[in-house]
């Protein structure tokens, strides 16, 4: 079945960096666009970044543009989110998702705090 396993979260100081990874399985990974979402406490889940199946086109929420970079490795069925210049408002649980499937992983917690 379709599965996503996110990793790489943790506690980081403001201005720091993290790289999130997502291992996808159970479907033809290279055929589908992928996205990263996040959900902060008391808030709705929001779209952070998307990438096309080839990796040739990416899009970002205005709040992370210029700081986050989404990428993928189709040979490894992996999608990544490089997060730089982190802010306290980036604190959330981060999830990856294939655009065509309503399936979510367990997410990975990112906490930005001094």
Gist?
This protein is mostly beta strands and 114 residues long.
Report the sheet-strand fraction.
over 45%
Count of DSSP-assigned helices: 0
Give a quick account of the main beta sheet: strands, pairing sense, barrel closure. 6 strands, mixed
Radius of gyration: 13 Å
Counted beta strands:
10
Helix content range: under 10%
Helices and strands: which structural class? Answer: mainly beta
Order of helices and strands: EEEEEEEEEE
Mean pLDDT rating: 96
Question: What sort of overall outline do the alpha carbons produce when their principal axes are compared?
Answer: globular
Features:
114 residues, mainly beta
Description:
There is one protein chain. With 114 residues, this protein is an all-beta fold. Helices cover 0% and strands 48% of the residues. The protein has no helices and 10 strands. It has strands at residues 3-7, 10-12, 18-25, 34-39, 46-51, 58-60, 68-73, 78-83, 92-98, 108-112. It is globular. The model has no long low-confidence stretch (mean pLDDT 96).
């Amino acid at each position: 079945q379709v599965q996503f396993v996110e990793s790489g979260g943790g506690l980081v100081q403001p201005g720091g960096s993290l790289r999130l990874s997502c291992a996808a399985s159970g479907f033809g990974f290279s055929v589908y666009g992928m996205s990263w979402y996040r959900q902060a406490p008391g808030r709705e889940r929001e779209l952070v970044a998307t990438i096309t199946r080839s990796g040739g086109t990416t899009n970002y929420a205005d709040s992370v543009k210029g700081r986050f970079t989404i990428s993928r490795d189709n040979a490894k069925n992996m999608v990544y989110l490089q997060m730089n210049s982190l802010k306290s408002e980036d604190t959330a649980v981060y999830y990856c998702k294939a655009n065509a499937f309503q399936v979510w992983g367990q997410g990975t917690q990112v906490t930005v705090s001094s």
